[in-house]
Amino acid sequence: MNLILLGPPGAGKGTQAAAIAASHGLIQLSTGEMLRAAVKAGTELGRQAKAVIERGALVPDEVVVRIIDERIARPDCDRGFILDGFPRTLGQAAALDDLLAARGRQLDLVIEIEVDDAALIERISGRYACAKCGAGYHDKFKQPKTPGVCDVCGSTEFLRRADDNAETVKNRLMAYYKETSPLIGYYFAKGKLKQVDGMAPIPEVTRQIERLLADVVAA
Ligand code: AMP
Fold it and tell me: Whole-model pTM?
């Protein structure tokens, strides 16, 4: 099964992609994560992407398309993947169509996570993650069970993303509405689009996605 999760920053794409990837044995492909890893590793790609990410702008299409093309070619993606944060422009969507067609593969479903705009800034500004295992938390909505200790791996170190500050978030939202939201119409026209209510609690959003996937499997 090959899926895309679509939605603005803060919609919960990463959280839901991780849950669905685990339950269906799919590979989660997050271009944001891959770019952050490149920044951390200090590669040439990372050096180029760092300033763009910190501004909340988009990295050029050809850069992210190349990353995804190479990643999808690896055998662990044969069983299927879930794209989170890609594609983000119509150019990337068209390139994805081409590279899937070239491999005789197709998209099964694009799931749009719908959220109220007003909730996004609060959601993004409060989020942080375990520095060791990457488990996600939020100041208001999801604190670790024992304060200061990661539920998953027990680490006591946490990180906030450099681009999760109020100013950058506004630019990221702007980029979403200008560049990415046209993909909703693009995939609707292809008959691939379904929606879930991203304002529901996290496990309920996961259940809604699971119901959509059950329909795909049954079809
Ligand atoms: P994310 O983790 O998906 O919120 O992505 C973080 C940042 O990485 C974005 O604000 C962009 O600067 C960059 N980025 C991630 N994915 C893409 C993409 N598909 N196209 C362009 N830029 C991207």
Answer: 0.92
Q: How far is the CA of 56 from the centre of ligand 1 (A)?
A: 8
Measured CA to CA, the distance from residue 156 to residue 201 in angstroms comes to 26
How far apart are the C-alpha atoms of 163 and 86, rounded to whole Å?
17
Model pLDDT for residues 132-163, shown as the tens digit of each residue: 998 999 999 899 999 999 999 999 999 999 89
Residue 40 three-state SS: helix
Cβ–Cβ under 8 Å, residues 143 and 160: no
Tell me whether residue 185 is exposed, middle or buried, using C-beta atoms within 10 angstroms of its C-beta: 0 to 12, 13 to 18, 19 or more: exposed
Place of tokens 């119409």: 185
Q: In whole angstroms, what is the distance from residue 82 CA to residue 28 CA?
A: 5
Sheet strands (E) in 95-182: 109-114, 127-130, 136-138, 158-159
Q: Is the CB of 12 under 6 A from ligand 1?
A: no
At 59-105, the pLDDT tens digits run 999 999 999 999 999 999 999 999 999 999 999 999 999 999 999 99
Query: How many angstroms separate the alpha carbon of residue 29 from the centre of ligand 1?
Result: 12
